[in-house]
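RESIDUES AND SHAPES:
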Amino acid sequence: MTRQTAPITDFLTDYAASGISRLHMPGHKGTAPDGYPAFLSAAFPFDLTEIAGADELYEPEGIIAESEEIAASLYHAGYSCYSAGGSTLSILSMVTAAVRKCGREIIAVRNAHLSFVNACVHCDAEIHWLVPEYDRETGLCLPVTADEVAGCMDSYPGAQIVYLTSPDYYGVQADVRAIAQVVHRRGGILLCDNAHGAHLIAFDGAHPMEAGADLCCDSPHKTLPVLTGGSILHCAKSMAPKLPKLELKHLMTLYGSTSPSYLIMASLEQAVLWMQREGTRQFLQLAEKMRLLSDQLRQDGVVLLERVTDCTKLTLDGFRCGYTSDELSAMLRRYQIEPEFSGGGKVVLMFSPQTDEQAFDRVVRFGKELKKRAPIEYPPFALAPQRVLPLRVAAFAPSVEVDVRDAVGKIAAENRIACPPGIPVVTAGEKIGPLEKKLLLDSGIFQINVIK
């Protein structure tokens, strides 16, 4: 097999073996003191800063630029930018770029992550929230549709930016291709938080870069073999002439560290190469294994969220099994299974090609031994807090912390989310009503800053 080019990895490996005196940062100088654990000692020789030959993340011309070109080729992007600050850095940067190009009004589906709301605070952007139809049978909103996006754009003709989260935390995907088409027909651009979908490139047309998104962030560390904090920000080929790579890189400096982790970037590079080499095949195999696992659990009477289309997610519907999410997650831990998320009547389990057979066997055993109970009914839902002040004005206004139980009727001075999955319950400038109070308390949030 022809050896794959790995510019960042090769540089780190060669430098570690060079014997050069490291009279530069970081302070460990490539060697761990006595008493440090073995896993840190093993990493230190390869943990570098932006020295000669190591290139610069925000003005890449050498090994980082070469590595990012390999990533862009895999994802069919005009160009791709590495982030060692997670998708938080990528989201802050792509929202800022979009506002500079298309104005301050943004249409966003309400399941956006906190980092999106924070980006809008920084940019003084105005959000027009789109809340899809609620499905009381499953206790979740349905995926947003192209028709809903089109209707919202028609209602807010000044909004030329649409922001979408797909897949969501539960593994449900929207029809990105159809949404991109209605956005583009109206002269807008589509931003996609694809943090949970870096692996979707394994499935033809499933990744937002193939489906028509203009800017898209991936968090490979969520679903690929990448160190925590590894993200990639993609710009579509059609968008690249309007937003040159260096311009987006400079915007990333507004939010990102000037000392990025080369270990994280090397792991991003290796994951891209692994996907090219064998990862795609392994994800296709995982999809089949997950289909068989889901069928087995259903056969044993376990109720799953049926709309899940992401093969890395298995979402147990606790309420419809007759259990609270806390009860269900506690039971899973007795089978030595630690779930990704537990809350709102759901428990999310995340898988990857690196998940061993023992984990699959444990889930099957859990399903067979789960005692059946009468379903618990999901509550009604009507999340639509009233905006009283602009987001940025409220976020920087004088505030005071109050008990959530005393906050009804007050105006939020901060963004508070149910985390995970990171959905804003209330954002700065919105009035807190009885439903918002309940959701905050149910999410374990007992104090909140409100406008004085």
Summary: The first helix runs from residue 7 to 16. The first strand starts at residue 79 and ends at 83. The CA atoms of residues 202 and 279 lie 8 Å apart. Residues 391-451 form a domain with the Molybdopterin biosynthesis moea protein, domain 2 fold (CATH 3.90.105.10).
